[in-house]
Design a protein that fits this description.
Chain lengths: ~450, ~450
Amino acid sequence: MATRRLAIIGGDAAGMSAASAARRRDPDLEVVAFERGPYTSYSACGIPYYVGGLVEEADSLISRSPEEHRANGIDVRTRSEVVAIDLGARRLTVRSAAGEQSEEPFDQLVVATGAAAVRPPFPGAEAIEPAQTVDAAERLRAALERGGRTGDSAVVVGAGYIGLEMAEAFVDRGMRVTMIEMAPQVMATLDSDMAAHVQDAAEGRGVRVVLGAGVEEIVLDEGGAPVAVRTAGETFEADHVVLGVGSEPVVGLAEDAGLEIGESGALRVDDHQRCPGQDGVFAAGDCAESHHRVLDRPVNIQLGTHANKQGRIAGVNATGGDERFPGVIGTAVSKICRYEVGRTGISEREANDARIEIVTATIKDRTRAGYYPGAGPIWVKLVAAPDSGRLLGGQIVGTEGAAKRIDVLATAVWSGLAVQELALLDLSYAPPFSGVYDPLLIAARAVAKLL
Amino acid sequence: MATRRLAIIGGDAAGMSAASAARRRDPDLEVVAFERGPYTSYSACGIPYYVGGLVEEADSLISRSPEEHRANGIDVRTRSEVVAIDLGARRLTVRSAAGEQSEEPFDQLVVATGAAAVRPPFPGAEAIEPAQTVDAAERLRAALERGGRTGDSAVVVGAGYIGLEMAEAFVDRGMRVTMIEMAPQVMATLDSDMAAHVQDAAEGRGVRVVLGAGVEEIVLDEGGAPVAVRTAGETFEADHVVLGVGSEPVVGLAEDAGLEIGESGALRVDDHQRCPGQDGVFAAGDCAESHHRVLDRPVNIQLGTHANKQGRIAGVNATGGDERFPGVIGTAVSKICRYEVGRTGISEREANDARIEIVTATIKDRTRAGYYPGAGPIWVKLVAAPDSGRLLGGQIVGTEGAAKRIDVLATAVWSGLAVQELALLDLSYAPPFSGVYDPLLIAARAVAKLL
């Protein structure tokens, strides 16, 4: 009997998690992974810290190199772009960096093509390379170190968490930073009242935040380098421009091959990461949908944490296993200047959009006992069902020690805990970590009182 | 109709929470609180930080003074010790600091007499005042500041969390510190493998830790001041001695009055903080039992977090309300030198003692993404039921950001989550806060693999 072959498209978190899981489970299987770029298994989340200089070496963002994967028995082909999938013939068409095409057979397939930065429609945007991959980040940092003197100006278009992290990275380099956002608030994953604190943190660090402003053009010099960003109201000089206007799942290749696209725009999968109706074909990571347990519908949330889990599950199930991905609840955390920011479940806005009835309350407290050094502000906003009191979501903004508390709320949302019960839960207390009532207990009680 | 009167014995967390809740709910009720000492509502947990000098003023440990309570309409009587309770006649006998006795009637009663330091049986122990109240802490600090020069020696007897915090406080003052513990490990609330890391942290700070050593005598000079601590094997010079050998509920007064003592040695209460068979009599805080939800039996856990909640519930129920205290699961957190330490649910030892079958696993990871500055070690130990995988307990030791994760495990234990589900839970990820798999997910998976 010929050796069976598992092919993987995409060599980042989801793809290499699938490869590694399959490799561990089935030593006789041939596992081959095709990656368009030069790197595997890197931390896209770490890129702003590398750009800002907090992380010195790009290499440290790479959790496992192609060589390391090869040493584990995975046939990694970097600079190898899959340009066509033939599901009937079980064959991929792969193009090398040199432009040569080859045909690669497979028995099982994992599609892990990730996400790509959205290209905004305004003129000049094409001149800006998205800093989404390690090699692009290296080019950006090199450009900053060449040209980037203290006092240089940077414009960040888009005030999502990546835009905010990049703005902070530029400030760390001593640059004057303007952030331009079309929406009336920063960080659209938060409700506007909570986002206002994040904006305070960015402004407190010296970032000029311009909201409700659509970019009309990135003005380029004769050499094609950016010199300014123009909105309807104002033109902002810019020695450097970064675009952080979101990213979308890369699904064209899979769609051409006949795989189903779901309502979120990403590849449809079942809870085993299987592409429906396609035996032995899986999708995982940023290119795939996940079931949102609170909204009870498929969503596309591009995060390394989901990519790793889904990839592993795809690898297990591609090798005869039976593991289920239980879905997501929209948990996320980031560090923006002096504040930590977390969110889970649904926000007030998401509830309104989905016509879900809620009650909500926001409290302000301190991260530590008031007398303990280093205590700072923390805001907690909770969203709950008005009938049962079931916790549906939470948002946290505050100083050191604030954000990882979001995992407590995530566990409560996941478990279907009601705010009345959360208010009396046996959470830990010691002066370096909270007041005697943890801010989460205080917030839960504030919501419970509204029921 | 005469005004009804609620009397409270004890003016700290539980007592004043009861008083405040009752006051808010029933403006016509007369609320009187008798407190033996000069202070109300202080943070006993903050005392080591005051002794060490991290907190400058003793006043900052007081969350609400007698005057503030009085301004809220609570009749606080400090330096007033209740010496007898007559439940039949609904009357307290109260002795003032001047030695005068008076009779005080009540309709409802809340017993919140707290806990007191255990007096060890060896000679010389009577010369050491426990640093358990704000005024005692003031005397200790004054003594340290008078005599406590850099290089002075201190011996801490007992290596529980208070002993460890006091040892650190002395190190902060530049003293040479020896800690003597009868048990073979520090911090008996942890399993010995996890406690070993805490010992490392204390030793890393310069504390000499002597385990398995029973103190036989505190050697006093002619003036009655300690000069050394003697064990069977060694005599340790000591300019200052602190006892941290645990505390026990203060129940003598209530027992004499006929209130029931439970199997834990504390006052028996139902889930409404009512003393069984005694209409209108409640107990709350360190002197009362709590239901342990995992062990399914009453326990006495002396913590401000329970005292506040139970006190409030007693105050609500004493004024016609109907609130239930849902029990405890043994959650606790502390900061010991470079490590943060958390625990919840049951430990491996507690499971063995209670003959509960378990599986357990311990993992070591990093508090942040490996490349992010400030990443440090974190150990997570989980205890689960072997059949269902239900999480029964967890312990965490690690550097900054480690310990408050215990609340995630507390929420999971409380909700009856299984480790298989915990391993795939949507916890937050960003490089400043964890690797892409949070240490809790890694630990849950390690246990799940054993099922």
